Amino acid sequence: MSGRLQFDLLVRRGTVVTAGGVDCLDVGVRDAKIAAVGSDLSGAKQVIDASGKLVLPGLIDTHTHMGIPIKDTHSIDDFASGSVAAAFGGTTTILDFSVQKPGQSLGDSVRGRLAKAAHRSHVDYSVHVNLTDRPEERLEEIPALIEQGFNSFKAFTTYKEQGMMIEWAVLPSVLARIDAGGGLLMLHAEENEMVTSLTARHLAAGLSAPIYHARSRPPEAEALAIEKASRIAAEIGARLYIVHLSSRLGLEASRRAKERGVKLYLETCPQYLVLDESQYRGREGHRWITTPPLRSPEDREALWAALEAGEIDTIGTDHCPFTSAQKDRHGGAFERTPNGLPGVENRLAILYTYGVASGRISLPRMVQVLAGQAARLFGIDDRKGEIAVGKDADLVIWDPRPEVRISAQSMHGNADFSPYEGMKQSGRLDRTLLRGQVLVEGEEFVGQEVWGQWLASSRPKTLK
Ligand code: URP
Ligand code: ZN
Ligand code: ZN
After folding, report:
1. Which of ligand 1's atoms lies nearest the C-alpha of 339?
2. How far, in Å, CA of 277 to CA of 297, rounded?
3. Could you tell me the pTM of the whole model?
4. pLDDT recorded at residue 19
């Protein structure tokens, strides 16, 4: 290190969000790590002037699905295209999911998934272990996977027809094994019997318009599954993480469980905060089909209130994009349209615009749910989630001044439409840095090489 140039890079005079609050500070980077946070730092090979801009830690998306099989097709982003889109959204770590084929061990499914990300992902990554094929026969694998740094697991209480559902009878032994090893089970909570009987009833009556997707998967199905799962968690004393919470009823079921002492963590997604089921009534309503479905404006407001009150721990996107051609192929029939929405590029913009700039949540709270709490829950907080000395130099610089409109045309994933098309956006991404390297500068992706690394998790921590 030269005596004069103590930093490789200085990000100067930004409005920096740290655990201590929000302040005008400089951030010094050396050897891909944050080396100093303070005032009037100097001596750097490169300086970025961030005055008038926000400087946030690189964000963590807890929930993405790059190139996974859904119905008769695959989500259209792979790790390469999806990670570029992530970087344009200020996300420097994505937590995706393994895909377990019938008969495949969990270990093989995880290794296969990592092989798809390696040398392709431009941002850092890890995978949650999906338990879809006879999890009761895979219990022995769980402790070993946790030791190897895979300590978050995911089960579905629905999608039986797609061979992905965990039976309720199996859940206790799976949850107990994961919890005993210090792991965390993430649950897609929808009561499948209710969903299949409502779906059958609607289809028998010839009702396959997109709104019947929402009617076939009502909030009651989410609440019932949360209720059942949290009772099982209570008996075992296990922690449980609910993915993509979408409804007021689901939130109330979660609240009751927490009041009974269940250690329940909640994730919601931008689509449940700013969109609602009226989207399904439009001419292209089927393009918004995602599971759980978009809900009512009242559900949306209940989620915002919970977010503000600190009841929601993380926000992931559930990024699972399709092209309009993929969405349109079945003439809008809800049961055949591939479910999922793009969103990995929009999460920060939406939370900033409709959360912070609208006065609903504070800047530190936004950073908590987009980065800090995910880092702690998924055991990557030794490196990620915070602007602090010793952490990876993952930084997002956000210019809050421009007023723009969200448009798929200026986005970077493979989907050719955006569920947020035309919505107002307060501010614009200025730069994204991963481990000190600038990945995005203005409208340009400037990452020189594929820079993403696999992140091994230590055991998930309990949130304060
Ligand atoms: O419809 C969605 N969200 N597709 C991805 C799979 C899931 O349930 O998260
Ligand atoms: Zn899901
Ligand atoms: Zn998902």
Report:
1. 1
2. 8
3. 0.97
4. 87
